[in-house]
Amino acid sequence: MLKELHIRNFAIIDELTVHFYNGLTVLTGETGAGKSIIIDAIHLLAGGRASQEFVRHGAKKAELTGLFSITEDKHPIFEKLQEAGIESEEGTIILRRDISDNGKSVCRVNGKLVTLSTLREIGSTIIDIHGQHENQELMDEKQHIHLLDQFAEKQLQPIKEQYEQIFHSYRALKREVEAMNINEQQTAQRIDLYQFQIQELEDARVSVHEEEALLEERRRLQNYHKIFERARNAYEAISGEYKGLDCIGEAMSALEDIVIVDEQFKDSHEAVTTSFYALQDASHQIKNILDELEFDPERLNEVENRLAQYQMLKRKYGSTVEEILSYYEKIKGELNNLINRDEAIQKKEQELKKMEATLEQLCNELTKVRKNCANALSEAIMNELRDLHMEKAKFIVRFERLNNFDVNGKDYISFYISTNVGEPPKSLPKIASGGELSRIMLALKTIFSSKSQITSIIFDEVDTGVSGRVAQAIAEKIANISFNSQVLCISHLPQVAAMADQHYLITKQVEKNRTHTTVQHIDDNHRVEEISRMMSGAEITELTLQHARELLQMANDKKLEIKSSL
Predict the structure, then answer these.
(1) Are the beta carbons of 352 and 173 closer than 8 angstroms?
(2) Tens digits of residue pLDDT in 193-209
(3) Taking the CA atoms of the chain, what radius of gyration do you get in angstroms?
(4) Verdict on whether the full-model pTM lies above 0.70
């Protein structure tokens, strides 16, 4: 529910903070006091269209903030938040929108910047605004199937879950088949390309370890003269005449003679002996390598050419040899699929036909359940309309069969209604009378509010054009809805105001040549005065006060009756 609304520099509102609670909250006040401005602010927080006209004259920007609390763990808003990468703590959602004096706006959800479309998606899951001319869920024909499915959820859900699971697989497979059915010229071109690439890679015979070995060989060939000269110097230093190995040999012999008479030279003798034989082995190795060293300029060219071939393959197929080999395996598989495309397509098309048969059967089951529940829904809504003094109204759920499967099956659902005897049913969004539309909407809201997960329902003067017993019936329906969802209602009807759990009085004042709107939460005594004013106009008499008290007492009794019946 909406817990707090903060408004700053918005229209004629300087700065305002309003706290809201569960149940029915009614906002009343004189025409032009700013009641609808508060609803406009909530509408903008839910992603409505902004304009620079909303910014208070002389201010740089308008600031709107709404604090919402969501107690239901499986509420759809959490999925929307997760998709947008937005965190929420203990179900607290803060929507903020700043509108600058050039008409541009900045939107935030829980402090994170979001696009207007994201704000609208999130806002639509928790706020439902219905005004005299406001299109919303019930007036959107595309939403009618979802409303019927909500009503039929218990009977429909097992079949629908099975259908959706198969439908998603079917849609993915159908896209795959469509992708395979590319035109013949493109297929032939891809086959030629893959065949050329495969042949090129097979002829190249690339190896993971060959490139490293070639690089090492190139280093040796490029540094042949340096290697030969230094290796020969090393050999001469060790094994040449009067060089290192001879000197160490003499030291080894001398220590051998000493050890016979003095054991303390034993370790030195062993170390020198080990070094002598190690140097002797190293000398032989160096000599063998020197004997085999040979500079071959042709081999260097071969190595350079082979390494150049590796670089060319890397530019075309991958940055490493591993990526080249991976690409080779990939296009081999794709070439095989293309060559055997017709067979693969035929196999997948057979799978599609099996899926279509299953989906068709499930669609028929969905339609059957929906039609049964549609009759119950029609009867329930007509009962509600009778309570609202539309005894002659007929509510019809019309079914049309789609040619193709969609996520809901093959049903297109639209709500039709006839409000007077002899009149043909019309599509719900085409109902012209404001009073009739208000009552139809309230009947639908009464049915769906317990099933909808919308947390805040807002009625902006939906009681326009009604009076008397119809006004009382509307008041009772709005109160009924408030037992399932938080309801905020702007009203000129005293019957509706009397049903409020919280009553706010909106007033307009002029100070220092500027207009200011204030919101006051009024107690029972002030409620009597305000309802009295709504009943009689500007003049309040003892009689109108008495009528107001009686109306409040009747409203309290009626709310207890409604609550006990739920």
Answers:
(1) yes
(2) 999 999 999 998 988 88
(3) 43
(4) no
